Each structure stands twice: as C-alpha cells, then as structure tokens.
Amino acid sequence: MDDVALLVPIFGIVFSFGFAAFAVAIGAKTKQKRWEALASVQNRMLERFGTAQEFTEFLKTPEGRSYMLVAVEKGEGGQAARVLGSVRWGVVLAALGIGFITLSATVENEMVVPGVLLLSLGVGFLASSLISTRLARSWGMLGHTGEGEGQSIR
Questions:
Q1: Secondary structure of residue 48 in the 3-state scheme
Q2: How many CB atoms neighbour CB 122 within 10 A?
C-alpha cells in the first residue's frame, strides 16, 4: 500500500512535466509553420517586383501600406495579442494561487507559500497587461476602435 501511495505523486510530477514539454513542442512547431507560411507569401510577393523601385512604389500605395501592416502584425503577433496573452497568464496564475491558498486552509499549511507566489505572479501579469495597454495606446501603437484603418508605418 505504501508503494502505491509513493507512485501517485511521482506519476503526477512526471506526467505534468511531460505534458508541459509536449505543449511547448506543439506550440513551437505551430509557430515555426506560421513563420514559414508568412515567409513564403512574402517571398512570392517580392518575386513579383522586378526592381526595388517597383517595390517601393507599391509600398507607397494604400494596398502596399495595408500589406506591410498585416505582415508586421502577423509576424510579431501584434501588441493586442501580447497583451491578451499576458491577461490569460495572469488569470490562470491568479486562479491557481487562489486554489492553493484555499487548499492550504482545508488540507495543509504548506500550500500557502506556493499559493501566495502564484497569486502574486497572476496579479503581476494582470498589472503588466494593464500598463502595457495604456502605454501602447498613449504611444499610438494600439488603435482605439475604428482607428488603425489606412494608417501607414511610421
């Protein structure tokens, strides 16, 4: 009976790290495929122009500006996507921290330390996303609703 009780946490730890490694590998592969597809589209687009002068003229048109804006936003993920990712992580870590603190009240007192750390990380991510959003808006990087159409790269 003691051997089985010892195997449960070991299995849980190994499974958790294995799943995390699997998720990271899938995410990296997906990101790599997205980058390859974007590079392929951009290469085909550049091949259509004979000279750098023709490409420069294209970029001066509204279509060229919108093409570059889309390419930059897709390539970098955009400011909004980064802020949303930060919010997601903040909510998940805050919820996990609250869960640990709640668990410490019912089961063991040793759960308070990881609970407070995770809750602090979650609140930090949420604060970071709020500050990033406000700074991006004040710097003109993140348009308000209805804005951003027809803007050129500065």
A1: coil
A2: 20
- For the chain, what are the domain ranges? 77-154
Q: How many CB atoms sit inside 10 A of residue 6's CB?
A: 10
Scanning the structure block, which residue is given the tokens 């209805």? 146
Residue 120 has pLDDT above 80, yes or no: yes
Where b means 16+ CB within 10 Å and e means fewer, 123-148 reads eebbeebeebbeebeeeeebeeeeee
Q: State how far the Cα of 124 lies from the Cα of 139, in Å rounded to an integer.
A: 22
Contacts of residue 124, Cβ cutoff 8 Å, sequence gap at least 6 = 90
Kindly state the DSSP code that residue 110 receives in the 8-state scheme: G
Residue at 44: amino acid letter? R
The values of phi and psi at residue 13, to 5°, are: -65, -45
Instruction: Quickly count: other Cβ atoms within 10 Å of residue 153's Cβ.
Output: 9
Q: How far is CA 27 from the centre of its chain?
A: 11
70: nearest Cα among 152, 145, 129: 152
Largest Cα separation within the chain, whole Å, is 77
Per-residue pLDDT of 51-79, as tens digits, reads 778 878 888 888 877 777 666 655 555 66
> For residues 154 and 63, what is the distance between their CA atoms, to the nearest angstrom?
16
